[in-house]
Amino acid sequence: MKKFIISIVLLTINANLVLAQESEPTQTPFVLGGVKVAMNLTKISGSSYENAYRINYAAGGYITLNSGHLFGVQGELLFSQTSASTVSDFSDLYKSVGTIDVSRVHLNYLGIPVLLNVGGEQLKFQLGPQYSILMNSNESFWTNGQRAFTSGDFAIVLGVWVNLPLRLNVSFRDVIGLDNINDIDNRDTWKTQQLQIAVGFKL
Does pTM surpass 0.85? Predict the structure, then answer.
């Protein structure tokens, strides 16, 4: 999957550089905003979960403060889904689950990335932190109401942003969770990871 995404990134960058050579340079506005939707490939690492990405989605808006052509700061507000499949012996690891079906986990997050943009008018590299708030924190595995996941998740974002004609843009990101979101005990460390492929429109 990662090889496929890298191939898409390289093809998009190559096509965009050709377009950039044929177009006249334009002045970058100080403030830019827009909306975006994304395919979100997600997984939760740990011995309790299968090591496979699941297809989800993300959607939201962004605003960028530019300092010339080379640098900028971009803030976003994104609603995103994370899903994962538990291993077959999950109930053996956590016997208090009861009779609830825990074969799949679905988590809804409100993500707030704050990213440094570095690059030219058409191509920018992105790096920065992201804090995500768990929206469905009242849902749990447990018959006794115990919360299974922490209320927030801190991550680091690495990505590339490509501006296209017609006010469109595409972005590719790896969002690496740094926090242990297991709110039950310390027997297993659960961390999120997302691969995002997004399409945006500049307002």
Answer: no
